[in-house]
Amino acid sequence: MLPSVACLFLGSLSFYFLSLSLTSLPVGTAYAIWTSIGSVGSVLAGMIFFNEPRNLRLNLFIMCIIAGAIGIKMTSGH
In the chain, count of helices (H) and strands (E)? Predict the structure, then answer.
């Protein structure tokens, strides 16, 4: 029961913060960054809480996602 409530609360909070970001960012930029945060967060949560494998290649690709999100923000003109 508790994980379901936490998931609904955190999902709603995530959508709220996405809607706040749309007041100052274009939809494409905000969505790209929002999905990047979700993707990286899911992988890191798996590593921390479920002892999923960690390796150099995975860390490199996580850094690529982060660099891409930063690059999108820097070139969006906002």
Answer: 3, 0
